Amino acid sequence: MAAYSESERLAELRAFDATKAGVKGLVDAGFTTIPRFFVHPEVEPTSGSNLQVPVVDLGGVASGDPARRAAAAAAAGRAAEGLGLFHVVNHGVPQQVLDEMLERVRGFHEEGVDAKGEYYTRDLSRKVVYNCNFDLFRTQAANWRDTLSFSMAPDPPRPEELPLACRDIAFKYASYVQKLGTVLLELLSESLGLNPDHLIKMECADGLRFFMHYYPACPEPHLTLGTSKHSDSGFITILLQDSLGGLQVLRQNQWLDVPPVPGSFIVNMGDLLQLVSNDKLKSVEHRVVAKSSGPRISVAGSFSTSHATSSRLYGPIKELTSHNNPPRYKEVTLKDFIAHYNHKGLNGKPALDHFKL
Hints:
The protein is of the alpha+beta class. Helix content is 29%, strand content 21%.
């Protein structure tokens, strides 16, 4: 592909952004090639192998069975230390709620620009944000996806502030995910040898933001990505995805597929959890490949990725450090960490490196 100047690239980005139609608009317009700013210089090849993802069974945990709770905490801890993610089954969220959430997210993204365009913005501080690539004007190459996001905790929007397409189900789904996140953070606390409420008292479950991604079928999937390599910014992410697949995890320098498991969630550790655990729990690098089929729908619930105004400092938990295992990260406010993460964008470089001692 012929090189083009930065001024040409910027003009194309502005013209695209002004449509407020995202990549869905390109597909609707019948594009058979992708715009130049979506082309990635190099797309690392897929290994072709499936990742063996550990499974954490929450059956019996809610009922207070101590043996099953201990088993779930141990399984979550092993997975979080080794791989950085796991499947969760018997989580208590009805299948009907999962199905409706995915259906309503698809419904929003497939509305016309007149309906969804009012939510289109580059101001990430707004309660409801719809756009194509939050870092569109900073990244080297854009990703083939559109996203609707909004914070549901600690300060949820009023119902009328959310798009009608997903308004009712969003609040119902959020209440389930909030409870599930609390249980998972309790189990991870126990796996670290801490009191069950340790991470909860650190306010790790106080912030919850949803990212509702739409990955349309791509005419040239070999040239771009749905989401480029990154790790998540928060403490944990609870991911709901449809059956299409496309999620991959970087493991020993190989990109491995994470096949969807119907009815389950993927839970992955985020950068802030790796920071407070002093590298005990691992934030996992992952990406989403572009596909010629689609659309792929996913809903990521990320805990504590809201722009908190709290002055609370997060650093390695004192009980997890010692003379032989000193703190590896400096203390940082959530606001400053997220500001660095968003400014950096999805450039493939770990955000945690910036905070290492």
